[in-house]
Amino acid sequence: MSLDKVMNAESVAIIGASKNETKRGFQAIRTLLDGNYEGIIYPVNPKEKSILGLKCYSRVSAIEDPVDLALITTPAPTIPAVLEDCGKKEVSGAVIIAGGFGEMGSEGKRLEEEIVRVARENHIRIIGPNTSGMMNLRDQMNLVGLREVPRGDIALLSQSGNMALTIMTEAKLKSLKGFSYYVGVGNEADIRFHEYLEFFREDKVTHAILMYVEGMREGRKFLQEAHKTSLKKPIILLKSGRSSTGKRSAGSHTGALAGMSVVAKTAFQRSGIIVVENSDELFPVAETLSSLPPIRNNKIAILADGGGHATIAADVLTDLGVQIPELSEKTRERLRELLPRSAAVINPIDVAGGTDSDPTVFADCADIILKDPEVGGLLIVGLFGGYGIRFAESLSLMEEDAAHRMGKMVRKRKKPIVFHSLYTSAKPHALHLLRYYGIPVYDSLDIACKCVSALAERGTYLHRYHFKTNFTFHWRAKAKHEGNQIIRSARKEGRSALLEHEAKKLLHLHGAPASKDRLARTPDEAVSIAKRMKRNVVLKIVSPDILHKSDAKGVRLNLGTEDEIRAAFDEIIENAKAFRPDADIRGILVAPMARKGLEVIVGTKYDDQFGPVIMYGLGGIMVEVIKDISTRVLPISPVFAKTMIGETKSAPILEGIRGEAPYDKRTLKSVLLMCSELIESYPDIQEMDLNPVIVHEQGVSIVDARIILKPEGKQH
Amino acid sequence: MSLDKVMNAESVAIIGASKNETKRGFQAIRTLLDGNYEGIIYPVNPKEKSILGLKCYSRVSAIEDPVDLALITTPAPTIPAVLEDCGKKEVSGAVIIAGGFGEMGSEGKRLEEEIVRVARENHIRIIGPNTSGMMNLRDQMNLVGLREVPRGDIALLSQSGNMALTIMTEAKLKSLKGFSYYVGVGNEADIRFHEYLEFFREDKVTHAILMYVEGMREGRKFLQEAHKTSLKKPIILLKSGRSSTGKRSAGSHTGALAGMSVVAKTAFQRSGIIVVENSDELFPVAETLSSLPPIRNNKIAILADGGGHATIAADVLTDLGVQIPELSEKTRERLRELLPRSAAVINPIDVAGGTDSDPTVFADCADIILKDPEVGGLLIVGLFGGYGIRFAESLSLMEEDAAHRMGKMVRKRKKPIVFHSLYTSAKPHALHLLRYYGIPVYDSLDIACKCVSALAERGTYLHRYHFKTNFTFHWRAKAKHEGNQIIRSARKEGRSALLEHEAKKLLHLHGAPASKDRLARTPDEAVSIAKRMKRNVVLKIVSPDILHKSDAKGVRLNLGTEDEIRAAFDEIIENAKAFRPDADIRGILVAPMARKGLEVIVGTKYDDQFGPVIMYGLGGIMVEVIKDISTRVLPISPVFAKTMIGETKSAPILEGIRGEAPYDKRTLKSVLLMCSELIESYPDIQEMDLNPVIVHEQGVSIVDARIILKPEGKQH
C-alpha cells in the first residue's frame, strides 16, 4: 500500500487534543495553525467542545468528513481502542507518539504486537510508536512541534528525536538547505525503513535522503530498496550502536537490534548508500550531495591561499581514497601566467599571495583548473570570504564577483566546487552567494574533505553500479531435481545436516570441484573404490550421529596399500562404536588424498539483519589468529567474488610469493559464485562450511563440506 | 643560550620600517603602538626621519640604547648585511619574515646557511626565516600584524601562518581561552622546535603548548625535550604531510623533511605528546587540556537527555579506547531516586525527560555520578543550554545555577566534565558560565569525545610515564673492550660490515643467544668443530666480499657425517671462487643446526628524523606479505620490548595456538633489549639485522646476524 495518503495527508485528527499549553495535543494544533497547514485539522477529545477555535470531536468516528491521518498523543494502553475507532473512519495512517512498547521489555512487546494486529485489520499504517512525530514541510504538516524548520529538498529519517533536532538546527544555522519530510521512525513497528525509501524515491520534492539509524528490522529489504533508490537520489546514512556500550544504549532506546558490522557497511555501500561515520559529517554530506554534481573520476584539485590548509587537505583526501592528480602541462602554464613566481602550480595549487589584492583570481584559477580533463572537481581552502574583512572592504565586492562566476562555472562544467573558509562564521555575503549556487562552505577542513570524498564515492558508484548485484534472490531458480532429492531425503530422516558425501554431491551438481568421494559399506568395497582412484586415499566415518569426525577418531589419512585400507576401515568402525555405541553408521567415505596447495575457507551463514552472507579467508592462522576474513551479503556477482579474494590482507600469497607460481584464483572465484548459486537454489540451507578448500596452481579441491539445514518450515 | 631575551624582548627594532600602510614594516609598528607594547620600538629605515611619531634610525647600530630583538622585513638577499649590523649592536634575536631560503631549492639553501653562519658569529638567534612572525601576548609584543588575538595560557607553535590564524580565530569565536605566545617557526633555520619547548616549559604564563608541524629538523632532541616538558604541561600536536601529496605540498612550503610515520606517532605519544589527527580537534583538545584535570583511570560516564547522542558518544569513545564502566549499585540507586522510572541509570545515563522541567537535575546527577569512585570524568551530551530557549525562559536561570554548581564540582572533585550542547551557537549564558569555570562546551559530539579521550590519555600517561625511557642514549656506556676491538679491527681492514662470526661474537658479549659458530679454515677443522657440537651442522662461507651468502651458493644445511661435511666444505669454497674469483675467503663458519621453533625478525636502522629505531616481526609471510611489524625509537625499556611483541597482529601465535605450548617470550624480549644496549654501546653501528631469530619453547636462537657500520667519522 502506498504511503501517499499518510505522508501527504489532507486532513489530520489530533487524538488527545488539549487546551493545556504544555501538552503535545495542544502544541501540535498550535504548530499546524501557525505554520498554515494546507489541510484540515480535527481535534479529538471527548471532554472539549472546541480547541483553539476548532470544533472538537468526541472520537474520530464522529468526524463527518474523511480523515487521512491520526496523530495519537494518548498513552500506550489506550492505543488499541483508538485504532479500532480510526478503522471505522477508514483512516489511512496513525502517528503514535507514546513510548512503552517494544523498547520496554516483553510486556511492551506484546502491546506493540497488539497494535500492529489491530492496525492491519483496519488497514491503518503506523508511524512509530515511540516517535517524535513526522513532518511534511511542503504542505506545512508539522506534527512534531518544532518550529522554524527550514523547507527544502532533503528527506530526513531518524531513530532519535535529538539527532533530528541536531540536524535541523545545523541546517538552519549553517546552510541554505532544508527538508521535504521528516519521519521519526521510532520502533518501526509497522512501516519499515525500506517503505519510506520507496516513497521518497518517487517524491518529486526530495533530492536526497538523510538517515540516522540505530537498529533496523528488515535489513535485506532495505538493501533492495536502497539499491533502487540510490540510482535516482543519494542516500546518506549514519549507523550508530557499533560498540557494545553503544548497543546497550541504543537497545534501551528504540528496542531494535543494533550493530554495525563490516558486513553491514559494505552492504550499505554496495546498495549505493553513502555511509558516514562521524555525526558532524552527516548533514554536510547531505547538503553537498543534494546540491552538486558528483565527481566522475575520483580526481580532485585543491586550490589554497596558504600551505598549511593545502597540506592538511591533501592528507585527509588521500586517507579517504580520493586522488590528487598532477595537472596537465597546459593547465600549469596557464596558472603560471596568472600567479606569482613563487606559487605552486602542481596540485595542491598554492596561490602564494596571488589573490591578496584581487580575489577574483580565485575564479580565474577555478576556471583554468576545471577545464583540465583530469580534474573531476575542485576543493578551495583558506581565507576566501575573509579578504574583505582582513585586508580592505572593497575586496569583498570582488569576492562576490568571484562567487557568482564560480557558481555559474559549476553548472556549466558539471563539476563540483566545495569550499573551506576560515571566515564561515563571520557570514560574509560572498559565502552566502556560493551557497545560493549550491556550493557548500565549511569552516572545518575535515568536513569539506569528507564532502568531496562523498561526491567522488557517488560518482564512482553511478559509474559502476551495473556491476553490482541487487540483493534479490530468485529462490529455487537454479535448483536441480537431484539436489532437491538429497535435501528431501535428509528431511525425511529428520536430519538437520547433510552427510559429507551428500553435501559434496550437491556441490558437484552445481559444478563445484569437491573431491569425488564414494561411500563404502565393507572393507572390500573400500579397497576397490581406492583402486579406481589411483592414488592414496582418506577414510572417514559417515554417521548422522557423528558431526565432528575427528573427535570420534573417525578419520585416517594417506592410505596406500590394501592392508592399510582394510585395517583403517575396521579401526574407524571400532572407534566410532566406542565413541557412541548407538551411532547409526552408514559406512565409510573413501576420498582421494588432496594434492598440495594453499588452504582456504569458504562458508555461508544467516545474518540476523541481512539474511544469507558469505565469508572467505585463507586457512590456518590467517583466519584463526589474524581474522583476515572477507564477508559479503549474498548473492554476489563475479566482480564481488574477485574483490572478496583480493581484499584480504593475505591476498598476495595467492599471487605466489618467493618465486612460487600463482594459485588458481579463477577457479576459487567460481567456488564463491557456486556458493551464492547454491544458497539461492536451496532455501532449505541454513549454513555451509567448506573447510578446507585447497587451491592448486591449477584447480581447486573442496576437501570437506558441511551443510546445515534450516528448521523445517523456515525456508523461503 | 636561553631564549628569554628573544621571547620577552624589552626593545624591538623594526628593520624595513615604512610609511606605506600596505607594508609589513608599517603594520608591525601600528600594531605594537595600538596594542600598547610594553617595550620600546625603534623603526629602522635609512630613508625616513620618523614613522608614526617615532624617531627612525638609519641602521640598527645607530640606535643609542640596547636592542633585544630585530624584526627584519627586508628581502632575503639583504639579510646577511642586516644581521652583521645587528651583531654590532649585540641584538639577541632576529625574526626574519622573508621567504626565498631553504624552501626554494639549492640557491635558497645556500643563502639560509649563510645567514645562520653570520647569526652564529654575532650571537644572534633567528626565528624563521619564512615565518609569519611571533607574538608575546603578555607584553603585547605582536610582531605579526594580526589584531584582537585573545590573551591566555596556551603557547602556539606553527609552521603555517594560515593554521595559526585558523586556531586564533577559533579561540576567539568559540572559547574563553587565548595565547601566551605565538611563534611562526618557519624554516627552523636556527632555533628549533625543541628549544621553544624548553622555553615554554619554564614559562609561568603558559599552561599548554599547541603545535602544528609539517616537518621537523631534529626529531630526537625534540622527543627528549617533549618528554621533560609533558610532565609539566600538556603538548598537543598535529603533524600533517602524511600522504605523498601532502608531503609534496609541505615540502614546497617549509623546506623541511615531512612525513608522519607510525614510528613518529608512537614516539610522540611515548614522550607524552597528545597527537591529534584532525585539524578540527586541535584547538579544542588544547582548550580542554589547559583547563581541566586529567582523567586518572580511563573511565568515563556519559549523561544524556536523549538516546541518539548517548549512543553516538558511546560508540566514538569506545573507538577511542576510553572505557564506559557500569555504575555502582549505590550510584544507580541514587540516580533512580532522582529520575523518572523510564530513565536508563546504567552508563550512558539517559534522564528520559527528568530534566525537562528542572535542568538543575543535571547538577544533581553530575554530583552523584562524580562521587562514584569508578568514574574518572563525565561527558554531558544533548540540549543543556537550550532549555531556556526551547521550553521556557525561566529554565535558563536554572541552567545557570546548574553551571555554577558543576563548575565548582570539577574543582572540588578534581574530575573533569566536558559538555556537548546542541545550543552552543546560540551562546546561552549558562554555557558561558561553564567555560568560565574551565568546562569546555562543543557543538560537535565527535570533538567533545576526542577531548574526553585526550584527558584520559594524559591521565594514563602521567600515571605511567616512569615506565618509559626518555630517548637519551648514554653512548658507549655499556661497551665491552672486546666489542670495541671487533669493530676496530673491521675498521682497520676498511670494512663497513662485520663478518657473521664477528657480529655473533659481539652479540654474545652482551649475552645474546646467538649460535656458537666457529670458523674453520680446513675441512679437518670443520669436522672437529662439528664433532664438539654434537649435532648436525650448517656450513657458511666467510668473506668480506660476499655479503649475501646464498647468492654465492655459500650455505649448506643439516650436515651429519664427516663425509658430508668434507664434501660441503670443498663445494662451498668452489662455489665462492666461481661466484667471485678475487674474493678474500677467510674460511667457513660451522654452526649448529638450530632447533625447531617460530621464526621472527629483529632489526635496527637509522631513521632520518629520530635516529636509531628498532623493528620486530614474525618471520615469513607475516613480515613479507602482511607487513605485521612493530617499530620503536631506541632506546627501549622492558615495558616497550613487551609491548612491541604484544602489539603485532600475529602475537597470539607466540602464546601457542592449537594446543601448542607457548614460545619463550621472555628471552625474545631480552633479545630486543640487547639490541637497544648494543646500539647504545657502539655508536659505530649503523644497522643490524637478526634474521632469522628462532624462538623455542625454551630459549631463542639467533641464526644469522648482519651488522653494518657507519661511514667513518659519523659515529657519536
TrEMBL record, chains A, B:
Pfam families listed in its UniProt record: ATP-grasp_5, CoA_binding_2, Succ_CoA_lig
Entry annotated with the keyword Lyase: no
Domain of life: Bacteria
Residue ranges annotated for the CoA-binding domain, each copy included: 6-101
GO MF, one example: ATP binding
Entry similarity comment: In the N-terminal section; belongs to the acetate CoA ligase alpha subunit family.
Protein name in UniProt: Acyl-CoA synthetase
